[in-house]
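seq:
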Amino acid sequence: MTKGLEQLPEPNGLEAKALARIGATSGMRLACQIHPTADIAIMPLMPADAGAVDGTIRGGLEGRERLITILFTDLRASTSLAEGKLPYDVLFILNQFFYEMTQALAASNGHYSQFTGDGLMALYGLDAADPKTGSTEAVRGAQQMLERLDQLNYRLRGDLREPLRIGIGIHHSEAIVGAMGPPRSQVITAIGDAVNTCARLERNTNAQW
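struct:
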């Protein structure tokens, strides 16, 4: 609903249950359950012939512009891992790597957002009352990644020709943040210039770790 929401009573009964079941966002109402007594303006989210199953698919309107801290990390020279190794050996190493990186996110309040082949994208400050705290947590997350990478390199020293190295980029700015992607496979992520800037920062690191 784009106008007149304040003129309607709060949803209750069947409407409240239905909105909760589909994970409706603020301002979303069911046309079949409201009884307007003043002018309103709406934006239909589904066609008139939509069925019950269609109600479980997000409409893609959850995203909003907000301050967020973005972190990119990338495994350098990952193609050299495959040299002289069986594919399952490479998969084992990569799975160990991503496990350690996601553990670093969990320990620093980071939100895993996207898998990027040999790296990942994470968001910080996603649920924080003050988005600025995400910057501090992202730096802490990066430090956790470096420490865990050192430990991983030590454990895998007999399987690696040379230690694993990563690049890390961190950027705090405004971006569109919300559920995005194909129906039934959406993830909470961010899009916009801030994401591109963070990716460039990561690519420009020297990856000395």
